[in-house]
Amino acid sequence: MTAKSERLSVLSDAEQEALYGVPNFDEGQQLEYLALSEAELALATSRSGLHAQVHCILQIGYFKAKRAFFTFDWDEVAEDSSFVISRYFQDQAVALLPISKHERYAQRDGITALAGYQSWSSTSLPWIASLAAQLVRRDVTPSFVAMELVAALGERKIIRPGYTTLQEIVSGALSAERRRLGALLDGLLDEPLKAALAQLLVHEDTLSELAVLKQDAKNFGHQHMNRERDKREMLAPLHHAAKELLPRLEISRQNLLYYASLVNYYTVFDLRRLKPEQTRLYLLCFAWLRYRQFTDNLVAAMNHLVRHYEAETKAHAQKRTLHEQVAQLRNNRKVGRLLLLYVDDQVADSELFGTVRRRAWRIMGKDEVLAVGEHMSTKQLSSLALRWEAIDKLGVRVRLNLRPIFAAVDFCGEPDNPWLQALAWIKVVFARQQRPSQCPLSECPADTLPVRLRSFLLDSDDAGNPVALNDTRYEFWLYHQLAKRLRTGDIYIDDSLQHRRLADELVPPDKCAPLLAQMDADIAWLRQPVGPRLEALAEELRKQWRTFNSDLRLGKLPHLEFDATRQRLIWHKPKAEDSPDAPDSFYGRLPLTDIADVLRFVDGQCQFLSALTPLQPRYVKQGAEANNLLAVITAMAMNHGIRVMARTSDISHRVLENAHRQYLRLSTLQAANDCISNAIAQLPIFEHFSFDMGVLYGSVDGQKFSMERPNIQARYSRKYFGRGKGVVAYTLLCNHVPLQGWVIGAHEYEGHYAFDVWYRNTSDIKPTVVTGDMHSVNKANFAIFDWFGGAFAPRFTDANAQFKEMYCVDDPALYEKYLVKPAGRIDLQAIETGKDGIDQIVVTLAFKDMTQAALIRKICTYSTSNPTRRAVFEYDKLIRSIYTLRYLRDPQLQRNVHRSQNRLESYHQLRAAIAQVGGKKELTGQTDIDIEISNQCGRLVANAIIYYNAAILSRLLERCKGKPKALAFIISTSPVAWRHLLMGGHYTFDDGGKAIDLDVLLDGLDLE
């Protein structure tokens, strides 16, 4: 147990060490930072005394490395001191005497003046406090505010203050923000609303209202959806109040989601202990978010049920049609024999008909002849009629499952939308306890009764005149059309997270220009005007077409052959160069190591456990035991769960439960993963993982996981989950390191999340090229990645299939003599015309107010003539065409993309091995947040294993200098391996003081 400071912890131990720890240079860094310029050397030699000169040189080097000054003893910097003395004072005896305070500050003044910096002083406090006040309105996470302040100080060339001062600045800004929000809420909330918020925390029977609201639906069944509607109705008054009040608080969407998420982690008892205004803010944000989540859940159920019923009617029609076809084939032979009786010469004309009829009945029975005759003489039902016939049998289920959802959800659209008018009318009819068929036909909006379907939707009298609606059919038809138009964007839902209008999601046009001016220049779309940018890209595309055609004709592309007869390419795909046997042949020679020891070793190297901060760090006087945190992470990653881990380890259930509740949150687990990822990037072996030193490749793909307790995000898939349900863990990997991981529905298209998972990567490893399989491709990914300075590089599986996606910027007639011809012409003018729309999208995505998945889903609902849609899709064609031509021409690019994806497949194998320790490849938890936590814990353990293996390879890299064969083997060895690890059995987290020593571990290992 370690004592905690009473001050707010704004940085993790690893972050503190990175900013405020004395640098620990390796040989390369000593040569880089301790090599002085003439001005720097003149400053150092101007100090009196050799020890002061050595100290000054060290301070100059450390300042260049971290832009800060440090107070240190000579023992702490012994290696760097020896380097400085050997380099600058070779023939002199240097006595390392203590440095006086005056000398230390005199050196600092000289260094800051030389570098053009200024020391921190109280005069900068008003400015930095004002900036902190602005930052906390964007994001109240202490580490975010602290790091942004450090970056701002660096831009102004002001030396950052000490950690204590930084703590006080951030703490003061957060306290001021709490007071501001508390004062606003106190004036805005009336007594009835305060009472309603307090009611959520009141225990009734076994659960409080808040505990009920936190529970997630397990499936789309009638009872679960009824409870979702009840909970939504319970929150409706609070949501209405939150909708009115939250904009007046001037908090960002990021903070709103953060405050709402805290309610999921705090217990009712915890919320009661907080300050009343703080609790009310959290509950108000929770009500706003949860109400909209319930709305989206109901809409998801609606879409699922409508599609399910449509599939059921289609299956019914196909089954009936097939049955009739089989029966007809079976009867054809008998009917043929019956017909032959009419031309049989052995049957005399004088023979009695009764005799002939008896012969016919011997071929086919009387009843069978009657049935077949009536069937053949009657007009057969069409497939459409059979489907409507199946809908008649769905009446009870439609009324039970769909009607309550459509009655509860508030759909919006244009006032003259006939489908919304029909929905409003039918709600009134049901409220009067009537059926649509009991109302005059004229009341039903005529535009909802298409001519081709009137015979199916209307009941007719004996004369064939339509007299009334068919209740079941019309109701289902209306629900089907509403669901379809919600997907196409004709109608929308205001109080939703996923189904609002795109125009409401995007930054307003009048605010776009000022925000663009403030945005980071790293966004490639903003670096030059659209005209020159398009001209440069157009010229590049022309060059690629010319080169590709010329190389193909001259036979310079040995991996491609053109079949002139069939007008097709024959593609000899290059093989990847990674050796799959290297990891097993190496790691199999290492001694077995317990996974608990590996996790403890990794924490000792990069302090990832320090990122797992408690919910209330200010009030927690003691931190959690490292062993407790390691145990609960292992339990969640390996699907043991808390109870099983308590039985199979040396830590009690109560301790594990408390650690899980207090420390395992999505934000803290993400920070812990980032600590490990960043530490891997600092290892000597990391740069050797890159197969192209000029490009850092990342890869994205999804991995299927079944679920112990399915929820509405889970879907059936016999191929992956058998009879169960599951989800997809979508991962961004770079140089074997899993940088980001999200859980998405198994029914969701993975390509819609490729940009989000890359752009929202919070680690220091920033891949510049992102590869993926064909599931990662959509109509906008090439464009969006290019706007933000990245490159999207999917792995194509069929070269000929890409012909229809390769366009040109000139008249296609100019390419008539080319072997491979463009599929069409890109409209550059449309891109320029739609620039304002692209600007809105770029700003919205940059501020992370909208996900790429929501953007793509909504932009596709625009008409094909919409300027923004056309601009996005045309720009995507431009970037994709350039990439496709480069990809087909360059075998090395193909190999790089292929290797990048193969590495992700290797990671998936490791991730599956971790999950299957507990029995099944699944994620555990009862709620969506629990499932995310389970996935993040699995990624954390995988990250730790990769760090451990990379550390072994790095140590061998140092040992084997001058041994080319051994070095080649080490560099080719993947860190994704686990055969040398013990991941099951009984866990002992009390290490008894033992620790992994890599030198001892590797003693006797010969790689020659």
Description of the structure:
57% of the residues lie in helices and 7% in strands. It is built from 42 helices and 17 strands. β4 (458-460) and β5 form a beta hairpin. α12 (222-249) packs parallel to α19, α27 packs across α40 (928-959) and α39 packs across α40 (928-959). The protein is globular. It starts with 12 loop residues before the first helix and ends in a 6-residue tail after the last helix. The relative contact order is 0.08.
Protein topology:
Layout: H1 13-20, H2 27-33, H3 38-45, H4 50-66, H5 78-88, H6 101-115, H7 125-138, H8 142-155, H9 163-188, H10 191-199, E1 203-204, E2 207-208, H11 209-214, H12 222-249, H13 253-265, H14 268-273, H15 276-340, H16 353-363, H17 366-377, H18 383-392, H19 395-408, E3 412-413, H20 418-431, H21 454-457, E4 458-460, E5 466-469, H22 471-488, E6 491-492, H23 502-505, H24 509-518, H25 530-553, E7 560-563, E8 568-571, H26 581-587, E9 593-594, H27 595-606, H28 626-637, H29 641-647, H30 653-663, H31 666-682, E10 697-707, E11 715-716, H32 718-721, E12 725-734, E13 737-745, H33 754-759, E14 769-772, H34 781-787, E15 791-794, H35 828-833, H36 835-846, H37 852-859, H38 867-889, H39 891-915, E16 922-923, H40 928-959, H41 964-972, E17 981-982, H42 998-1002
Parallel strand pairs: 9-17, 10-14, 10-16, 14-15
Antiparallel strand pairs: 1-2, 3-6, 4-5, 7-8, 10-12, 11-12, 12-13
Helix pairs in contact: 3-4, 3-6, 4-5, 4-6, 7-8, 7-9, 9-15, 12-15, 12-19, 13-15, 15-18, 15-19, 15-22, 19-22, 20-22, 24-36, 25-38, 27-40, 28-29, 28-30, 28-40, 31-40, 34-38, 36-38, 39-40
